Amino acid sequence: MKEYFAEWTDLLIPWLLSSGVRVVGILIGAFIINKIITKFIDKTVRLTVVPNNYSSKESEKKREDTLIQIFSITSKITIFTITILMVLQEFGVVIGPILAAAGIVGLAFGFGGQYLIRDIISGLFIILENQYRIGDVVKFENLGGVVEKISLRMTTLRDMDGTVHHIPHGEIKEVSNYAKDFARVNLDIGVAYDANLEHVIGVVNKVGNTLAQDAQFKEFIIKAPQFLRVNNFADSSVMLKILGETLPLKQWEITGELRKRLKIAFDKEGIEIPFPQRVIHQS
Fold first, then answer.
1. SS3 160
2. Which side of the chain, N or C, has fewer Cβ within a 10 Å radius?
3. In the chain, where does the domain assigned CATH 3.30.70.100 lie?
4. Whole-structure pTM over 0.85, yes or no?
5. What's the pLDDT tens digit per position in 259-274?
6. Where would I find the beta strands (DSSP E) of the chain?
7. Contacts (Cβ under 8 Å, ≥6 apart) of 88
8. What's the CATH fold of domain 183-269?
């Protein structure tokens, strides 16, 4: 037993003093390189992303964070792969056959790999064209939610129910972004046919202007919600179109507040918001 232990000690100590030191050096070097590259990516992206005339600081920050996350993940995968191969080599593993086998496996799965390539290429165009960013609210055909993560291969969404959806970029055919540059208050509201339209329009515009001047909401409103047109003659009401502009993702909050204030103002001014009614005559 002592001889066996002494034999292992004689083999282990020289390895630790040579390859073992190199393994530790490789791991420390990989850690330092990863930190340097991460900081380099962060500073480079924040310096090179040029804001446009419509972008807010928040919008540009989301764009920068998206690019930083993608480049950082890619660099970490690359550093991790190279580090593992170098460590295996120090343990006496010949990495040449591993690389050759990886190439053969890649060819064997080439047909399936075309979908991966398609996803990556589509992801590159999404990123370069700035179609959406982390934090945006988007809709992909039947799926919608907040963008939580973007990689080269897929986008991760979380919907209003908290459900997380992973969508490969190659499957994305149509994107609707609710948080790009600015958003709109787009509200249709009905009033009774016997209402004085000029009076109603005055009340609507006054409510919109008051909302835009409110200290709690004015920083989110670009253009005050105002009457646009008579949009339709419905069965029970005259439909009015109200339009305004807000910062991205603030349209729902502002529209909800506008509805509340319009209801209060209409009640005060005696303006009826009709609802469908049915009259039944009995003989």
1. coil
2. C
3. 183-269
4. no
5. 999 999 999 999 998 8
6. 137-140, 143-150, 154-158, 164-168, 176-177, 183-191, 221-233, 238-246
7. 95, 98
8. Alpha-Beta Plaits (3.30.70)
